[in-house]
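My main concern about presentation is that the manuscript never shows what a single data entry looks like. For the editor and my fellow referees, an illustration may be useful. For illustration, here is how one protein appears when written out as sequence plus structure tokens:

***
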Amino acid sequence: MSSFSWANSISQYCLRFSQPQSMFQAKSSSIQCLSDDTGSDRNPNENHMTVSVTGATGFIGRRLIQRLRADNHSVRVLTRSRSKAQSIFPAKDFPGLLIAEEPEWKECIQGSTAVVNLAGMPISTRWSPEIKKEIKQSRIRVTSKVVDLINDSKYEVRPKVLVSATAVGYYGSSETEVFDEKSPSGNDYLAEVCRKWEATALEANKDVRVALIRIGIVLGKDGGALAKMIPLFKVFAGGPLGSGKQWFSWIHLDDLVSLIYEALRNPSYKGVINGTAPNPVRLEELCDHLGNVMGRPSWLPVPELALRAVLGEGAYVVLEGQRVLPAKAKELGFPFKYSYVKDALKAIVS
């Protein structure tokens, strides 16, 4: 497989700032989500949550839905496409899962314990002025809609928590600097997107606890960066992108979902929290570890020129990086299951 072929496959990455048959009782296309004293969402367990989720059909969202339901919480999927959500969350596997398209979001957000906002267009593609506008607007529009619906809710049915995704792109890129939650924002396009994204979420009413998770590159078995890298290593065509010296601030999918889950439940989780593992690596180290756990060499780098030919300005996403540390999560005592990328890759590949 040529370097150009790999570069082309990289353009299909679905990295997020690293992505059912409804049981609603509908009348005249109207969805009734609000709980009352006899509603099914009312639970005598004070730890029970009712969580509305945007971006639920994505890589992170799917795993979060599974986690919430495994712990018997009520989940409301806020989607733009009911048919897509139904195909991902079929009723036979997800009985009782509520699905709502945009006109019905208001009724779902009202009465929810919390909202998780994960929506946004994937950023790893060839950037045109139109694509760059959509990358930004897909995040701002959904976040603004969610915040407006929260703020417009009466106090007694207003969600008390908003966990909203953002990204480590906030910090810009550097091969030498180390970033944590107190670091200033960068001055490139993605940093500007993140600043506006976060500012929009922070417009939530002051009685709503807001946690902003600045997500790194998410590693998991069924999506994210590894979904395209693993097949290439299997056919002995794996290796770093560009110089391989760029920092790769990663997090295992299970740890990210646990971090979001803890942010929903724990009042200490507020403000900005970096969603990255404690030990970022350079990309060439990640590729070496991936090759080792797969029993394959990491010998075929993709030249920067090939990536820029395929992705144009969008090649920035894979050619630049940042070394981001989860200072806030560690301060809060969050228990990372995967602190080292080698352990994370072993768990994913096995």
Q: What stands out?
A: The first strand starts at residue 26 and ends at 27. Residues 1-30, 35-44 have pLDDT under 50 and may be disordered. The radius of gyration is 20 Å. The first helix runs from residue 3 to 10.
